[in-house]
Write a structure and sequence with these properties.
By secondary structure, this protein is mainly beta. The chain is built from no helices and 65 strands. A five-stranded antiparallel beta sheet has the order 1-35-34-33-32, with no helix packed on it. A five-stranded antiparallel beta sheet has the order 2-3-58-57-56, with no helix packed on it. Strands 4-5-6-7 form a four-stranded antiparallel beta sheet, with no helix packed on it. The protein starts with a strand and ends with a strand.
């Protein structure tokens, strides 16, 4: 097996992004690079985990996320530079942002005429007009302070779903649509549409457009290959008639000498040069990944490929691979979070298991451990400290246990009843008996020797799919069901509460929690409910207009507030009287579909999202557990002036070091590394003028060795 991938999260490399108000933090896997833009020696990279400014000379970088800046969304889909040098940044759900190097100006559906917050493409013409493609709102033109909307129209641009934009030498705009083909919009405001009916275009689903040096229009399609429009002549390049590696095109770029670079969905890059085809992928070259998201080239840049595994930069016949923000979690889909303490969590993702302990993140998967499947659905710790792992797809009735060190164990359940199944929840009672909520096979009990199955065929339990298990102070088990509502088990008998014999309006219950006063709270299809042992009180859209009814999970904090994870509406708090909603528009929450919640002893709420990693929220302030670890470990090296409003100088006091090996990193109070600079004898100044006024920490390293650290006060 491969060595365990251990990501040491010491303070000096802590990458959790904290918001400036210290209430929100995020942990996002930003390894997927969606787009890049080269500007001098700086590479702007749009990832699934924020916007990265990467220094190509020394590898230093600055990261902007929704948690630590005004970037509206962590998923950056496109980047363009205008004539003034501003960067225009499109995001997946947060709208459009203009970045002037210091601050972000946001454009979204609420504060502007922008018709859709899903931005798919941006180009800037010679008059500095910004042309913006949206996922459903059509085409947008931004000219100065004016925003003009071109919605879909059969007589003009027929497609509201725009996938790609390109400008030719005459400044004609070429527009790729998701369903209606290719459209040309010329400077005389004439629209011409090309589709499979009126032209030889290979397919109406367009994924990318590029223009070569002679003016040919190159059109990538979703599944049919590449079409080329040369004046009125159409050419086609496919897997069968050319050296194109795959018909599934994701990106096209033309380099300065008119070579075509064609990115594919899962087969790397095909290069077309003077009639010759060359394939670059992870098998034939050192390209890091075969799923290509974007290709960038210009007169002053080598070919730069953005893929699902970071950035690859052309170096003659090989590639320099850069892993961008390879964060602490292997996937941004979080199924479950098991809270052990404020300093320890186990996290189930769609691509492995994560253990967080005192700043150290360990990742386990099928390749480096005994984990049977990478999709971890549920977790529990037994009374002996053994971790029980429920999988989204169990393998032939097996469960997995892990002692947290090196011993993995496969445990056979009931193969005749279980087979391939989902374990939605695991509960360990005071007697160390294990209880499993399964999909389709009822409730399972394991006493470390024998298995017992409770189903609607052999017991009074209602429902076939169980979703959640809790235990009250009297030892009763409460089991929710999708289809069978709520079941109570006293060890002998089951009692069922459902829409037929109670006030419950739905029999689909997704999650249970018990508050400080022993009330049972239910997240159900349509809202939430409180059960005090005798009566249900329902909270739905009908009687609480501010409640969003698509509920996935529910939990209670130490103050008896109820926290609700919704599907599409963010996080909701209920204090017993009022509902307060936190979403991606009104807060630093980076995604609105939430799968799970966990609250630690410090009342930090760990929020697992469907596709944006982990968010952490505290109503008061997130505490820093690493702040005290910073010490003045080399008083000979000093910084001045301190406090400062613009920059500080580093006085090495004759400290001898190897050239190219000294760096200075800046961290905020919560340990987020927000910038890194290479230090040379001729450049000892660190510019922090762009940072907000606060206390920061600096760490000076020679290679990986820390040689000095301390505080800097930005005023």
């Amino acid at each position: 097996m491969k060595n365990l991938l251990q990501l040491l999260l010491l303070f000096c490399i802590l990458n959790i992004s904290f918001a400036q108000n210290n209430k929100w933090a995020s942990v996002v896997n930003g390894l997927v690079a969606n787009v890049s833009l080269k500007e001098g020696n700086t590479l702007w990279i749009g990832t699934n985990g924020g916007l990265v400014l990467y220094n190509l000379l020394d590898g230093s970088y600055t990261t902007y996320t929704k948690a630590n800046s005004d970037l509206p969304d962590d998923k950056v889909t496109c980047i363009a530079r205008d004539i003034k040098g501003n960067k225009w940044i499109g995001t997946l759900v947060g709208g459009l942002a203009k970045f002037d190097g210091t601050s972000f100006t946001l454009f979204n559906e609420l504060n502007s005429a922008l018709p859709d917050n899903e931005i798919t493409a941006i180009v800037v013409d010679q008059d500095d007009n910004k042309w913006v493609g949206t996922d459903f709102g059509g085409l947008v033109k931004i000219s100065g302070n004016t925003m003009q909307i071109f919605s879909s129209d059969p007589q003009r641009h027929p497609d509201a779903w725009i996938t790609s934009l390109a400008l030719d030498k005459q400044q004609n705009l070429w527009i790729g649509g998701l369903f209606k083909g290719l459209t040309k919009f010329n400077r005389a405001f004439t629209w011409t549409n090309y589709n499979i009916t009126n032209s030889q275009l290979l397919e109406n689903q367009i994924t990318s457009i590029a223009v070569d040096t002679s003016g040919k229009i190159l059109i990538g399609t979703y599944s049919k290959g590449m079409s080329v429009l040369n004046g009125g002549i159409w050419l086609s390049y496919t897997e069968t008639n050319s050296g194109l590696r795959s018909n599934y095109i994701t990106s096209i770029s033309v380099d300065p000498i008119n070579n075509y670079w064609i990115g594919t969905n899962s087969y790397g890059v095909s290069k077309y040069a003077n009639g010759t085809w060359t394939t670059y992928n992870s098998t034939s070259s050192n390209l890091s990944n075969d799923r290509i998201n974007h290709i960038y080239s210009s007169k002053l840049s080598p070919v730069i490929i953005s893929s699902d595994y970071g950035i690859s930069i052309q170096e003659n016949t090989s590639w320099k691979n850069i892993e961008v923000l390879n964060d602490k979690i292997p996937s941004n889909t979080i199924y479950c979070i098991l809270e052990i303490s404020s300093q320890e969590k186990w996290i189930g993702t769609s691509f492995g298991l994560v253990h967080y302990l005192n700043g150290t993140w360990d990742i386990y998967n099928e390749d480096n451990s005994g984990l049977l499947d990478n999709e971890v659905q549920s977790l529990a710790i037994d009374n002996n400290g053994l971790l029980w792992i429920g999988l989204r797809y169990t393998q032939n009735g097996f469960l997995t246990t892990f002692d947290g060190k090196s011993k993995w164990r496969k445990i056979q359940t009931l193969p005749t009843s279980i087979g391939t199944n989902t374990i939605y929840d695991i509960y360990i009672d005071k007697q160390n008996t294990k209880w499993f909520a399964t999909a389709g096979n009822g409730l399972l009990k394991f006493d470390d020797t024998n298995w017992t199955q409770y189903s609607d065929l052999n017991s009074q339990i209602k429902g076939k799919t169980m979703s959640s298990i809790v235990q009250d102070k009297n030892g009763n088990l409460w089991i929710s069901s999708i289809g069978g509502a709520l079941n109570k088990f006293d060890g002998t008998n089951f009692t069922s509460y459902n829409s037929f014999n109670s006030k419950l309006t739905s029999n689909n219950i997704y999650k249970l929690t018990i508050d400080q006063t022993e009330n049972i709270w239910l997240a159900f299809e349509g809202g939430i409910a409180k059960f005090d042992g005798s009566e249900f009180k329902l909270f739905t859209k009908n009687n609480h207009a501010s409640l969003n009814v698509n509920v996935n999970s529910i939990t209670a904090d130490s103050k008896n507030n109820i926290w609700i994870a919704t599907a599409g509406y963010g996080l909701t708090k209920f204090d017993g009287v009022n509902f307060t909603n936190y979403n991606s528009t009104n807060s630093k929450l980076n995604y609105n579909t939430l799968y799970c919640l966990a609250i630690d002893a410090s009342d930090n709420i760990w929020i697992g999202t469907a596709n944006a990693g982990i968010n952490i929220y505290n109503e008061q302030k997130l505490s820093s557990t690493k702040e005290s670890s910073i010490t003045e470990n080399n008083p000979k090296i000093t910084v001045y002036p301190n406090p400062t409003s613009q920059y500080f100088e580093i006085d090495l006091n004759n400290y001898k070091f190897s050239q190219n090996n000294l760096t200075c990193s800046i961290f905020n109070l919560q340990g987020n590394e927000i910038m890194r600079k290479k230090i040379t004898e001729s450049d000892l100044r660190v510019d922090i003028s762009h940072l907000s006024n606060s206390i920061y920490y600096y760490i000076i390293r020679e290679e990986s060795k820390e040689i000095s650290s301390g505080k800097i006060n930005k005023i």
